[in-house]
Amino acid sequence: MGLLLTVTLAYGGAALALFRPFYGLLVYVCFAIVRPEDMWPWSVQDGNYSRIIAVSMLIGWVWRTLPKTIARRRGSAEGLWVVGLFVGYWLWAGFLALSADNAEVAWEHVEALSKILLPLIVGITTIDSVKKLKGLAWTIVVSQGYVAFEMNRYYFSGYNKLRIDGFGTLDNNCAVIGMVTVIGLAAFMFLNARKYWQKAIILACSAFMAHAVLFSFSRGGMLGLIVCAGVGFVLLKKSLKHYVAFAIACGMVISATGPEVRARFLRTFEHQADGRREASAQSRLDLWEDCWVVFQRDPLMGCGPNHWPLLAHTFGWERGKEAHSLWIQTATETGLPGIAMFAGFYVVCMLRLFLLMRRSDEDDDPWFSDSAKMVIAALAGFGVSAQFVSLELLEVPYYVCLLGAATLSVYARERRLVAQADECEDGYESEWDDKYADGYDWAASPAV
User: Which domain holds residue 53?
Assistant: First the structure.
């Protein structure tokens, strides 16, 4: 079944992407989350399925979308500025790779970033309607929900695969942070959905993801889930039913949290007799102090893309040790310009979406406000969780940010079209008033 689904999506999506690159993007996002080779390793061998989709999508984009984008100047600077920050980060990483101590490692990192950059560019230039925004959101939620469903299936069969093995190349912490990010989307999609079957699918995906966060024993994931839920609740226009629903959801999550999970989470904040924290938490603090030492050596250029693991052993850590913080490791490796553009990619998106949410009115499609809220909540949860894990190649947050950037572009485009229509209508009425202000001889009209 897995092989049939993978081959159908890969080759069918590749054929469709030549004419409709947006649908190729959806398949690419689905494969990036589900990872068919890791989901069904017994039947799906390495066949470069994502590469097949990517090549076809890029050909279709250059052939079908790029000329129209140039001719019509489709899109808005609102969303393009967000993606532009990631483009800047990619260029900066490439520039640093030219003089890196280990060029091979640095260029491998730049190549990995390129696989994320290309879908972002395709997405921001092809998503031009609310329908496509919803298509991307549904693809992200259902794909991540299916991964969570499989992890739950393993768990209830007696083997906690997520905690022990992680998922694919991701350990339990990285895999769970992807789920925390998507839960932020699912909450507002549930409220925006109008049909009961849609609400049922979203609710099931949310339940699987929330439970997976708990049995993963990832403390960063649990903290991110709390932040995501809190930010989402603050952004929500609340009534009594929302307070009741939020209380029920919190009660269900707490009841599903076993004593071992609660004890592990609370140990994060404990201090031992010597004033140090629990071993895992203390090791992260020690790692960050060592990263600060490296950062101070060259705050502008950093130590080089993906170079901290090459230096970790000089501070007494094992070789290849990650910094266990996306933000600190990025700053250490790419300097102030790198972290400014990389973090700005998320922060600017959130700030612009907050402004969109504030200025949207009742005449606008409610999706725009809901999309802004869901992306803000999702990225807030991700931002907190990412402080405790190095996961620069986790793709889900990039696509969530793409959803936010595309929302900005589509909203600006819709408002611009409405303004142009109003101007045309006002101009027509003005011309009519000028012509007939002094009266009109209807008897002399040819129509009469």
Answer: 1-73
